[in-house]
Automatic annotation (TrEMBL):
It is an enzyme of class 6 (ligase). Keywords: ATP-binding, Magnesium, Metal-binding, Nucleotide-binding. Its EC number is 6.3.3.2. It comes from Pseudoalteromonas aliena SW19. Pfam families: 5-FTHF_cyc-lig (PF01812). Its cofactor is Mg(2+). The keyword ATP-binding applies. This is 5-formyltetrahydrofolate cyclo-ligase. Belongs to the 5-formyltetrahydrofolate cyclo-ligase family. It catalyses: (6S)-5-formyl-5,6,7,8-tetrahydrofolate + ATP = (6R)-5,10-methenyltetrahydrofolate + ADP + phosphate.
Length: 198
């Protein structure tokens, strides 16, 4: 099964990296409209606590969405690799002037500041990257398992928050993914073209 997952991962990563700069730009605009509309549909007036990621390896560009969410005065958080348990993620407040550093994958993350960490159950939304997704809401990540391990404890408790939302290009959708017992399925995936709900 791991070989099949690796093959899908390699194929989809190549596919999304072949998207042109223009296609990525249009996709970022559509994502921005789709998620901000998702928030409007919830008819909430409170400022949401939203964890998101900085784009890497051809992922759906989140920079425009982050700017829009800042403009709407929502609280934004980025994942950082746990400094004492490198298998899990923490979510730290991200502002325009946040000091940043590259982690050992070369991905920018805020410099650790324990006063700016948001406990997972306090987040309203967790917008997650993914490599591929299928018709049932299963998610295939990069293979590091960071999100699955981070969410495993909450998954056992049938949590209500945060709402997990996968972000992906439409070309990352496949008919069916081979899944493992530790995979955390998603109830919502937003692409530039549509919002999938299960």
């Amino acid at each position: 099964m791991s070989n099949k997952r690796s093959q899908i991962r390699e194929y989809i990563r190549k596919t999304r990296n072949n998207l042109s700069k223009s296609q990525q730009g249009i996709a970022a605009q559509q994502l921005n409209m789709n998620f901000t509309q998702h928030l409007k549909d919830k008819k909430t007036t409170k400022k949401e606590h939203i964890a998101i990621y900085l784009t890497n390896d051809g992922e759906l560009d989140t920079s425009l969405l982050i700017k829009s969410l800042w403009d709407l005065n929502h609280y934004i958080y980025l994942p950082i690799i746990h400094p004492f348990n490198g298998a899990n993620l923490l979510f730290q407040r991200y502002e325009k002037n946040s000091p940043m550093r590259a982690n050992h994958y070369g991905i920018l993350e805020p410099k650790l500041n324990c006063t700016q960490i948001c406990p997972l159950p306090m987040l309203d939304y967790l917008l997650m990257p993914l490599v591929a997704f299928d018709e049932q809401g299963n998610r295939l990540g990069m293979g590091g398992g960071f999100y699955d391990r981070t969410l495993a404890r909450l998954h056992d408790q049938h949590w209500q928050k945060p709402q997990l939302i996968g972000l992906a290009h439409e070309c990352q959708k496949v008919d069916e993914l081979p899944i493992e017992s530790w995979d955390v399925p998603l109830k919502t995936i937003i692409t530039p073209d549509k919002t999938y709900c299960w």
